[in-house]
Amino acid sequence: MGSLYDLHRAVGSYFRLYERDVSSSLRLTRNPDLKTISGFCTKPQVSLKAPSYTSSCRAPGSGFKKEDEIPETVSFEMLDAAKNKMWGKISFVMIALTAAGCISMIVEGKKAKERNESLTSLTLEKKALLREAAAMAAKTE
């Protein structure tokens, strides 16, 4: 039993050493220019300039007038705020269009009532025309 325990310890220490060697080699090959920031989207680097932090005081979801005003990193909260603002505007437009459609249908219905047009009268007229056509067809045969 002692030899199995020793084998287990030896294998464990080998893997710990291997893991340490792999992580140190990864640190050496990692590119220091890459930006990895958790929770942020990064803007592609066009030129090397000092990041401007003046626009970070803006309210979330506010628009930027010039390309220079766009911050180097944009948080997901700011993106969510902009998306929510857009969906809010779209929902208000849809509400307005629905209300306009309802009002136009009410106006058209009142105009049709003044002309004495209803679904019942239209159906009766259509059936009368079909009966006349059937009677004409029966006479010609």
UniProtKB/TrEMBL annotation:
<protein>
    <recommendedName>
        <fullName>Protein FAM162A</fullName>
    </recommendedName>
</protein>
<comment type="function">
    <text>Proposed to be involved in regulation of apoptosis; the exact mechanism may differ between cell types/tissues. May be involved in hypoxia-induced cell death of transformed cells implicating cytochrome C release and caspase activation (such as CASP9) and inducing mitochondrial permeability transition. May be involved in hypoxia-induced cell death of neuronal cells probably by promoting release of AIFM1 from mitochondria to cytoplasm and its translocation to the nucleus; however, the involvement of caspases has been reported conflictingly.</text>
</comment>
<dbReference type="Pfam" id="PF06388">
    <property type="entry name" value="DUF1075"/>
</dbReference>
<keyword id="KW-1133">Transmembrane helix</keyword>
<comment type="similarity">
    <text>Belongs to the UPF0389 family.</text>
</comment>
<comment type="subunit">
    <text>Interacts with HSP90AB1; HSP90AB1 is essential for FAM162A mitochondrial localization and pro-apoptotic activity. Interacts with VDAC2; the interaction is probably involved in inducing mitochondrial permeability transition.</text>
</comment>
<feature type="transmembrane region" description="Helical">
    <location>
        <begin position="86"/>
        <end position="107"/>
    </location>
</feature>
<keyword id="KW-0812">Transmembrane</keyword>
<keyword id="KW-0472">Membrane</keyword>
<dbReference type="GO" id="GO:0016020">
    <property type="term" value="C:membrane"/>
</dbReference>
<dbReference type="GO" id="GO:0090200">
    <property type="term" value="P:positive regulation of release of cytochrome c from mitochondria"/>
</dbReference>
<dbReference type="InterPro" id="IPR009432">
    <property type="entry name" value="DUF1075"/>
</dbReference>
<dbReference type="GO" id="GO:0071456">
    <property type="term" value="P:cellular response to hypoxia"/>
</dbReference>
<dbReference type="GO" id="GO:0051402">
    <property type="term" value="P:neuron apoptotic process"/>
</dbReference>
<dbReference type="GO" id="GO:0005739">
    <property type="term" value="C:mitochondrion"/>
</dbReference>
